[in-house]
C-alpha cells in the first residue's frame, strides 16, 4: 500500500476509535441535578400533586402524547397515532406494541422486564390505560387533578363525585393496543389533557400487591425512558436508563446512563454547583448580578423563557381579605416592575393578569392594554379607605393580624420580604412572615390556606383554560383561597364549551378582569423567566414548563 494511503487509513481508524470512545463516555454519563428540598409528594401517577412530582413521574410513565419543547406541537408518546371522531367527542389512540413493564433489580444491577404469573413479559396495553383513567377518577383515590380530567370523560364527573359506579365511564380498551376515550363535550384542549400525569397507565397488579409502598424502588414497575434505581428519602432519587424503552417522537431513548436528583434548597444547590458537584441548577434571583459579572459563570448562565405565572392568593373567607376593597388595596400597592427589577433581577416579566401571554388564547400586552391590574398607589389608598369604612374601622391598626405563608427557601424569603416592605410603606400595614418546610406548606395550602399565600401555575396543557377554570372555578381542587364567583364561573364555563377561538379569547379576557380586578381574589405578580446555570459539557433542552425532556440531555467529557 502506498505510504500516503496508509497514512490516511491510519488517521481514519484513529478518528473512529476516538469517536467511539467519546460516544461511550457519553453513554456512561451520570447527570447530577437538584430536585428541590425534601421528598416529592408522590411518584404515583394518580397521587402526584405539583410540577416537581410530575417531572419525576414523566421519566417513568410517558403520556399518550407529549408537547415538543421547541415547536410547541403535540407528538406521540407511547402511541403510534390517534384520530378524533367527526363530532370531536371520541379520541382513539393506537399504542406502540411490545413495550414492557420494567423494574430495576438491585441484585443484578440491571433493568429487567416484569414477568406475569405465566412467566411472560408484562406488556403495556390499553387495559393499563383504562386502569389509569379509572383509578384517577375513582373518588377513593383522591387524585388532585381529577377535577381537570373528569369533565372530559363521559360519566367522569358523576363517577368522581361518587354518584355512579363508573360502568358508563367513557374509556375503553377496544383491543390490547387500541384505547378510546369519549368526552361529553368537544373542546380544543382534550388531547393534551388526556396526557395529564394522572391519566398515565399504571400497574394494577403491583398496586394491589404493595399498596401505598408500590412506588418504593424495590416494588415500583414502570415503562418510560428511565427506571427508578434508588430513593434515599429526603436526600436523593436516582434514575437509570431503561434499555427496553423503544423510544418515540415525544419520548426519545435516554442518552445519559443515570440521572440523580438531590433534594437541596436553592442556596445549597448553587454552592454544590460551584463546587462541581451538580451539572445544572436553577439560580436564586439575588445571585444573578454576581453570576453575570463572573467571567466563567456568566458563560454558563441562561435566562430562558418560562410558561409559569407567580401570583399571591388571598383566602377570601378570612378577615380582612373577605373584603374586596382590602384585597384591591393590597394588589394596587405592589409595583410589579420594581419586583422584577430588584427581586428577580430581571428574570421575569411584570404580570397584570394570571395567564402568561405565551399560552394559547391568553391576553397579550400588545393587544390587551385594558386587561388586568397594575401598580397604582392612589387607587391603593382609595380602596384601603373604602375597605376600612365598610368594615367600620378607624385605622389600619384595627385590622386583624395578617400572616403570609410561603415555602422556606432563599428565593421565597426574598420575595416575602419585598411584599412586607411594600405593604408597610404603601398602606401602613405590617404583615408577618411565616416560612414553612415544603411538606407543611402544601398541607396547609390544601387543608387551610393562610390569609395570604404564595401561589402560581405551570401549564399542564397549552390553553388558557388550564390557568383559569382549572384553578379558580368555585370549589376547584387548587382553589386554595376558596374564591367563589358566579360571574367568573359563567365566563370560564362558556369559554370551555365555545368552539370559536376568537370568542374563547374574549371570554378569557373578561374572566381575567373578573378575578384580578372586579373580585381581586388573586394578585398577579410576574410571568416566569428561568435563570439557570449549566456546565458547558452538558447539552440540554430548555422547556418553558418544568416538564424537561431529561432523556434528551447528554453529558460529554470535560
Task: Describe the overall structure.
- By secondary structure, this protein is of the alpha+beta class.
- The chain folds into 2 domains: 189 residues, Dipeptide-binding Protein, domain 1 (Alpha-Beta Complex); 223 residues, Dipeptide-binding Protein, domain 3 (Roll).
- It contains 18 helices and 21 strands.
- It is globular and about 80 Å long.
- The N terminus is likely disordered.
CATH topology of the largest domain: Dipeptide-binding Protein, domain 3
Shape: globular
Question: What would you call the structural class?
Answer: alpha+beta
Number of helices: 18
Integer count of domains: 2
Give the mean pLDDT. 91
Helix content: 25-40%
- Count of extended strands: 21
Task: Profile the largest sheet.
Answer: 7 strands, mixed
Radius of gyration: 25 Å
CATH class call of the largest domain: Alpha Beta
Secondary structure layout:
Layout: H1 3-27, E1 30-34, H2 51-60, E2 65-67, E3 74-76, E4 79-84, E5 90-95, E6 102-105, E7 110-113, H3 126-137, H4 146-149, H5 156-160, E8 171-175, E9 178-182, H6 190-193, H7 204-210, E10 226-232, E11 236-241, E12 258-262, H8 266-274, E13 280-282, H9 288-293, E14 301-314, H10 324-332, H11 336-343, E15 348-350, H12 377-391, E16 403-407, H13 410-427, E17 432-436, H14 438-448, E18 452-457, H15 464-467, H16 469-472, H17 486-497, H18 501-518, E19 522-534, E20 538-539, E21 554-555
Parallel strand pairs: 1-12, 16-17, 16-18
Antiparallel strand pairs: 2-3, 4-5, 5-9, 6-7, 8-9, 10-11, 11-12, 13-19, 14-18, 14-19, 15-19, 20-21
Helix pairs in contact: 10-12, 17-18
